Amino acid sequence: MDRTLEKLLSYYPKKDYWNAHLARLPRKPGFGDRFALDVMRLRLASGTLTKTEEFMEMAQLALQCSERSRRADEAQREVDERYRAAWMESHVGKEFDGTISGVTSFGLFVTLDALYVELSSHPLVKVVL
Question: How, if at all, do strands 107-112 and 98-104 pair?
């Protein structure tokens, strides 16, 4: 039945066919919650999203996805920061080429050229120019 509906949809993209096809997607194996917003977007594009409650559900899904994405980005930055710190800790005292990326009253910020790591250098740290 799914293949027949897909063929009908590809040759005759009617709202009824889109509605039937998109209604079946969430019941397929492997369909995760993260695809629910994509299905809602497809329903909006195909004109099958019509009720106020459906628009509200789509808005709530978008907010949830946005929040999850924000949390994932924050977690990724934290992990990257910790890896950089651990790597730099094992290389204390070594020399690297870098570019001064900022100057403050308490020291310099130096970006290491090869590693894209930004460090703050305090006046007690030797910086060779």
Answer: antiparallel
The tens digit of pLDDT for each residue in 53-62 reads: 988 988 888 8
- In tens, the pLDDT along 42-96 reads 888 888 888 899 889 888 888 888 888 889 999 998 998 888 788 778 877 888 7
Tokens of 42: 């497809």
| C-alpha to C-alpha distances, 10 to 16, 120, 127, nearest whole angstrom | 13, 58, 65
Residue for token pair 């570019």? 99
Give the closest residue to 40 by CA, choosing from 15, 25, 16, 58.
Answer: 58
CA distance 9 to 4: 8
**86-114: b (≥16 Cβ within 10 Å) or e:** eeeeeeeeeeeebeeeeeeeebbebebee
List the structure tokens of 74: 């924050």
pLDDT for 116: 66
